[in-house]
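The material for today's practical consists of a large collection of protein records. A record pairs a protein's sequence with a compact description of its fold. Instead of coordinates, the fold is spelled out as a row of discrete tokens. We will come back to this pairing of sequence and fold again and again. Here is such a record, shown just as it appears in the course material.
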Amino acid sequence: MAQAASKTCEICVSSPGHNYCEQCDQLFCDGCKISHLRTKMTKNHTFLSGPNINPEVKLYCKEHDENFIYYCLECSTPVCKMCAIKKHKSHDFAEIKESTEGIKAEVKMLIDMKMRNLQSKIKNIDQGSTKYQLDVQKVIQAIKEEGRHLKEMIDTKIEGLMHTLKEKDTGNVQTLQSVGNELKTALDKAKEQQKFYQDTHGIKDTTKLLQKLKQIKSQIDQIQEIQIPIMPSVKYDIKTVAEGEIEKLFGELTFGETVKKEENPKPQKNVREKPM
């Protein structure tokens, strides 16, 4: 086998071996390469050329210590000439270089297909995520709108209760003030007659005193004592609202859960190994 470290032509063993024959697995200098390609049996051999070629990567059949020169299509494996005769006698073969090109094309196709599938799925994920975020914003807006509507209804109810309370309060206060004013007027009249009565203490004439007392008594009798109305009252019975009753006022959230799909396992294709 050629040694990459020497980089010396293995034919003349004197010039640099920068040309690697894939069929012979040997390094050739430029002159020996030309001679090799002029020979009838080796004119179709192919070369790798350049200072960085590494012939050691070429695979050998460890069992027979021979180069792999064929590719068994039925077993999907490279074989040497001895393997072809002994173990793969009735199988279909192709030249290893030809097979390598076919496998390269197949692998490239698989890579391209896999990338397209993955890119398509990534696009679907991105689009789905964007749509989901828009849906979330719509739901948030709907919840806020419903909350505002319910709050408006509550505020309207509160305003109605407050209006009724204030309206009733105004009427009751006016009634009480009116009764109070009438009683105050009657009290003033009574105080006036009280003063007249006190003045009678200075009257010595019995006839005049009697006449004056009759007048005071007549005035006192004319003062009306109106009945005190039943005092108004007000109270508010607080209703205890359960959480479940509040929930009935709102809509309901529903989610489509994110579930990773298990893809159906596909039968594995026979991917041919790339001979080196």
